[in-house]
């Protein structure tokens, strides 16, 4: 079982889209759970790529190829992760903040939320504060979820919180923040309502926010 996960990780790192899809199918057929596949193959692939990128061993184009392969693997798992049918548990508007093009983690969070019964409005990547504000007015989400993968775009989270106050929207929506450089401490400082480290924590946190509960990841 470990073999197929190693092969999937390798296929993602090499940017081999078809192999990544095939290995994901094999892993699922072997009875491996989606969370095992994500935690044991997809996450380590990007940890490795991040290190290699940092060390200058690979280029952005290599990471883009890898991202495509990861998206393909996620596409295979999508029907399982998003198989909820029933009344919506709540509405979540989500996006990657302005200046930031990373969306692999955000998309995993979306799949998990959808699979857990939430209606998700995906605003995409590089989303300016104005677009988030517009979406809150239009869709009236229970939760606004903000993703930032770059330290340089972290201030966008802060800007967003300020905009919510300025636009009189702060009491209408709960805010959860996440992404590799975001910490619980940072989330507390900008007065967000929750911080989560991965897709599983994010889903638990959204449940607490929608139901006005204090939970492990609420602030
Ligand atoms: C893939 C990748 C890219 C791809 C992105 C493709 C895509 N479609 O997303 C490309 C090639 C485009 C890219 C570009 C760049 N990247 Co980049 N990239 C990465 C890499 C290798 C992996 C990120 C990833 O997808 N991880 C896998 C997913 C599953 O994990 P995740 O994103 O962390 O998401 C999880 C959690 O964070 C959380 N989460 C995420 N979002 C949210 C939101 C909420 C609300 C919640 C609750 C939780 C949550 O849940 C997710 C699932 O569990 C990281 C290194 C790393 N190890 O993180 C560098 C990294 C993020 N990139 C980096 C850099 C520097 C860049 C560039 C500036 C490089 C350049 N010189 O051009 C550009 C910036 C482009 C831009 N303006 O955004 C740096 C950032 C350094 C920093 N601290 O700011 C990193 C850390 C690499 C490094 N070690 O230097 N990158």
Automatic annotation (TrEMBL):
<dbReference type="GO" id="GO:0046872">
    <property type="term" value="F:metal ion binding"/>
</dbReference>
<feature type="domain" description="B12-binding N-terminal">
    <location>
        <begin position="1"/>
        <end position="89"/>
    </location>
</feature>
<keyword id="KW-0489">Methyltransferase</keyword>
<keyword id="KW-0170">Cobalt</keyword>
<dbReference type="GO" id="GO:0005829">
    <property type="term" value="C:cytosol"/>
</dbReference>
<feature type="domain" description="B12-binding">
    <location>
        <begin position="89"/>
        <end position="219"/>
    </location>
</feature>
<comment type="similarity">
    <text>Belongs to the methylamine corrinoid protein family.</text>
</comment>
<dbReference type="GO" id="GO:0046653">
    <property type="term" value="P:tetrahydrofolate metabolic process"/>
</dbReference>
<dbReference type="Pfam" id="PF02310">
    <property type="entry name" value="B12-binding"/>
</dbReference>
<dbReference type="InterPro" id="IPR006158">
    <property type="entry name" value="Cobalamin-bd"/>
</dbReference>
<keyword id="KW-0479">Metal-binding</keyword>
<dbReference type="InterPro" id="IPR003759">
    <property type="entry name" value="Cbl-bd_cap"/>
</dbReference>
<keyword id="KW-0808">Transferase</keyword>
<dbReference type="GO" id="GO:0008705">
    <property type="term" value="F:methionine synthase activity"/>
</dbReference>
<dbReference type="InterPro" id="IPR050554">
    <property type="entry name" value="Met_Synthase/Corrinoid"/>
</dbReference>
<protein>
    <submittedName>
        <fullName>Methyltransferase</fullName>
    </submittedName>
</protein>
<dbReference type="GO" id="GO:0032259">
    <property type="term" value="P:methylation"/>
</dbReference>
<dbReference type="GO" id="GO:0031419">
    <property type="term" value="F:cobalamin binding"/>
</dbReference>
<dbReference type="GO" id="GO:0050667">
    <property type="term" value="P:homocysteine metabolic process"/>
</dbReference>
<dbReference type="Pfam" id="PF02607">
    <property type="entry name" value="B12-binding_2"/>
</dbReference>
<dbReference type="InterPro" id="IPR036594">
    <property type="entry name" value="Meth_synthase_dom"/>
</dbReference>
<dbReference type="InterPro" id="IPR036724">
    <property type="entry name" value="Cobalamin-bd_sf"/>
</dbReference>
């Amino acid at each position: 079982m470990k073999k197929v996960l190693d092969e999937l990780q390798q296929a993602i790192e090499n940017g081999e889209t078809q192999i990544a899809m095939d290995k994901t199918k094999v892993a699922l057929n072997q009875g491996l759970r989606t969370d095992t596949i994500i935690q044991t193959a997809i996450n380590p692939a990007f940890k490795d790529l991040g290190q290699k990128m940092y060390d200058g061993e690979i280029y952005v184009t290599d990471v883009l190829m890898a991202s495509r392969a990861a998206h393909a693997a996620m596409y295979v798992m999508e029907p399982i992760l998003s198989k909820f049918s029933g009344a919506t548990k709540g509405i979540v508007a989500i996006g990657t903040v302005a200046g930031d093009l990373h969306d692999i983690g955000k998309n995993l969070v979306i799949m998990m939320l959808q699979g857990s019964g939430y209606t998700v409005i995906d605003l995409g990547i590089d989303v300016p504060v104005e677009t988030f504000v517009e979406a809150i007015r239009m869709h009236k989400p229970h939760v606004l979820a903000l993703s930032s993968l770059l330290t340089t775009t972290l201030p966008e989270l802060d800007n967003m919180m300020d905009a919510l106050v300025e636009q009189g929207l702060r009491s209408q929506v709960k805010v959860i923040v996440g992404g590799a450089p975001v910490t619980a401490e940072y989330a507390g400082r900008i007065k967000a309502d929750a911080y989560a480290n991965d897709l599983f924590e994010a889903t638990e946190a959204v449940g607490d926010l929608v139901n006005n509960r204090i939970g492990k990841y609420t602030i």
